[in-house]
Amino acid sequence: MSQLSFDLVIVGVGGQGTLLASKIIGKLALSAGLGVKVSEVHGMSQRGGSVITHVRVGDAVHAPLVSLGAADYLISFEALEAARAAAYLKEGGIAIVNTQRILPMPVITGAAAYPADPLTGPPLSDHVVEAVDALTLAVEAGSQKAVNLVLLGRLSRHLAFEEEAWKHAIASSVPRATFATNSKAFEAGRVQA
Q1: Three-class SS state of 8
Q2: Three-state secondary structure of 117-176
Q3: Using CA atoms, how far apart are residues 172 and 2, in angstroms rounded to an integer?
Q4: Own/partner long-range contacts of 172-177 (Cβ < 8 Å, ≥24 apart)
Q5: Would you say the C-alpha torsion 72, 78, 81, 83 has a positive or negative sign?
Q6: Which CATH number is 95's domain given?
Q7: What is the model's pLDDT at position 45?
C-alpha cells in the first residue's frame, strides 16, 4: 500500500519526539499540496506519561482527530503504548512499533505488571505489526534521540512521498547540527523495512 491520503496516530512517552515526528509529516504533506491536520494531546508528557498525536492527510481534511477504528497507521515509540492505542487502527491497519520498553509508573511502583509481550495477542493480533528495534538503530546513527526518525523511515516505505521530499521536511524541522544524524536514522529505518 502506497498512498498520499491517510490517517495516522503517533503514540509514545513524553520526551521521545512524537511531536517532531508529526511536524515532519505535516511539512511533508504541505509540500505536496495536501491538506493536513495535526492534533496533539500532551497529557502528563513532561512526567514521562503517554503522548498521542493525530495526523490526518488528504485532499480535504476537515476534522483534526482520527476516529477509533479509522487509522491507516499507528506509530508507537514504546511497545505497551502500541497495545493501548491499537483501537485506533482500522481493519488491516499497520502498526510500526519500537520494541523498546519504558516502564509506566504503575509498573515501577509495583501496582501493575508489564505484559510479557504487548505486541502479540489482542488487541494488536488483528493488525499488521512491524516491530523494529528503533533505539538500537538510532544509537548506531549517532543519537538515541533519533528513534522518531527511524520510525518515520519505516513509515516512508508505505507512503508515496519521494525520498527527497522526506529529506527536505526533515531538514526544515531539525536543527542544522543534527540533520546528518537524523538523516542517517531515517535511512536506517527505510533500509530496515
Answers
A1: strand
A2: CCCCCCCHHHCEEEEECHHHHHHHHCCHHHHHHHHHHHHHCCECCCHHHHHHHHHCCCCH
A3: 24
A4: 172/27, 173/20, 173/23, 173/24, 173/27, 174/20
A5: positive
A6: 3.40.920.10
A7: 46
Asked if residue 110 belongs to a domain, the reply is no
Greater confidence, 104 or 48? 104
What is the side-by-side order of every strand in the sheet holding 128-132?
35-41, 50-58, 6-13, 71-76, 89-98, 128-132
Q: Which grid coordinates belong to 162?
A: 519521494
**Rounded Cα distance, 155 and 165, in Å:** 14
Q: Are 179 and 149 in contact (CB under 8 A)?
A: no
User: Does residue 73 lie in a domain region?
Assistant: yes
- 66 within a domain of the structure (yes/no): yes
pLDDT for res 47: 55
**Tens digit of pLDDT for each residue in 144-191?**
999 999 999 999 999 999 999 999 999 999 999 999 999 999 999 999
Instruction: Report how far residue 41's alpha carbon sits from residue 10's, in angstroms, rounded to the nearest whole number.
Output: 10
The three cell numbers locating residue 149: 526518525
Give residue-wise pLDDT tens across range 13-61.
Answer: 777 788 899 999 999 999 999 999 998 775 554 556 778 999 999 988 8
* Domain range for 35: 6-104+116-192
